[in-house]
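// run 5 | inverse folding | seed 20
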């Protein structure tokens, strides 16, 4: 039996991020290929006029419908992309045009659910839709979101967050993860996983996974500590005591601790544990290795130590993590 029509409206406005606009429709189109009957999704790009909209990438996109034509029309999902301006130091600042905010506020009332992509969360925040809620956005503007809207619980480390009918997604390529989550919400995980495979996504990440890598963020300005981080990544299975790390960096243990605190905002021991947990996560997601093997190769030595580290870092156990995030097998 065909599914009922589900109108999906994606907002268009000048300087919008192109991938935010084009990513979700690709997911919805692939969903239809995986179904034997119409999925019911109907995607419309909506703007204030029917004139071409110039995106941040310089590519012009043609709207399907004017925003005022949508008033009083039932909308299944309203998707709000974002846009940024970049200052002289290369720092991104999310924009929330008052006219766009007003359209979101108006259309949200007639929408079953509202989802922001990347820095589109700032627009939802300006419309008051995130008040008292937990939300995520691109890591580069998370501090701005928290500062501008202190009544929002900003979690900069999440791929996406659902709070009732409001969804927020992290940055750029995670628009695919968010769209897949919407598909799973409507049609179930098995069908969403089939779409993920069509996208050649190794793993359909769920909202609790991090948009960061311990080995990539934050980037240090000190060459010696970057070299040490590479050394740690290549020797995680070894003991790596604090004296060993200090010797590798040619500094005292006290100086090692001071540099880590200044450059990375953490201690050597905490960084080492986080790096080992990340390596263990990757093995749990991608292999069938036993917990004993994962513990040994990642430097935890025992499964008890592995369990304690996962509890501290992720609030779960290695077994629970694998059950939730394990990549699907054919």
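// decoded
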């Amino acid at each position: 039996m065909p599914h009922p029509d589900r109108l999906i409206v994606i907002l268009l406005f000048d300087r919008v991020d192109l991938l935010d606009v084009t990513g979700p429709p690709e997911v919805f189109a692939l969903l239809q290929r995986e179904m034997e009957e119409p999925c019911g999704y109907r995607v419309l790009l909506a703007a204030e006029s029917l004139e071409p909209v110039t995106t941040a990438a310089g590519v012009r996109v043609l709207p399907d419908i004017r925003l005022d034509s949508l008033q009083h029309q039932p909308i299944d999902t309203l998707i709000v992309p974002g846009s940024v301006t970049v200052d002289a130091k290369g720092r991104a600042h999310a924009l929330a045009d008052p006219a766009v905010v007003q359209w979101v506020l108006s259309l949200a009332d007639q929408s079953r659910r509202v989802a922001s992509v990347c820095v589109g969360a700032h627009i939802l925040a300006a419309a008051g839709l995130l008040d008292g809620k937990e939300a995520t956005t691109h890591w580069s503007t998370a501090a701005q979101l928290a500062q501008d809207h202190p009544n929002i619980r900003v979690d900069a480390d999440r791929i996406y967050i659902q709070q009732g009918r409001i969804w927020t997604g992290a940055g750029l390529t995670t628009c695919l993860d968010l769209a897949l989550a919407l598909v799973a919400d409507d049609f179930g995980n098995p069908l969403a996983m089939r779409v993920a495979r069509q996208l050649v996504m190794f793993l359909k990440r769920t909202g609790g996974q991090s948009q960061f890598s311990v080995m990539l963020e934050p980037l240090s300005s000190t060459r010696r500590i970057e070299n040490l981080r590479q050394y740690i990544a290549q020797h995680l299975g070894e003991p790596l005591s604090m004296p060993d790390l200090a010797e590798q960096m040619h500094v005292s243990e006290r100086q090692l601790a001071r540099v880590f605190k200044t450059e990375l905002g953490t201690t050597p021991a905490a960084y080492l544990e986080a790096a080992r947990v990340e390596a263990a996560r990757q093995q749990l997601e991608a292999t069938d290795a036993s917990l004993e093997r994962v513990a040994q190769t990642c430097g935890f030595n025992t499964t008890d130590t592995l369990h304690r580290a996962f509890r501290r870092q992720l609030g779960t156990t290695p077994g629970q993590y694998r059950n939730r995030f394990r990549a699907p097998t054919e």
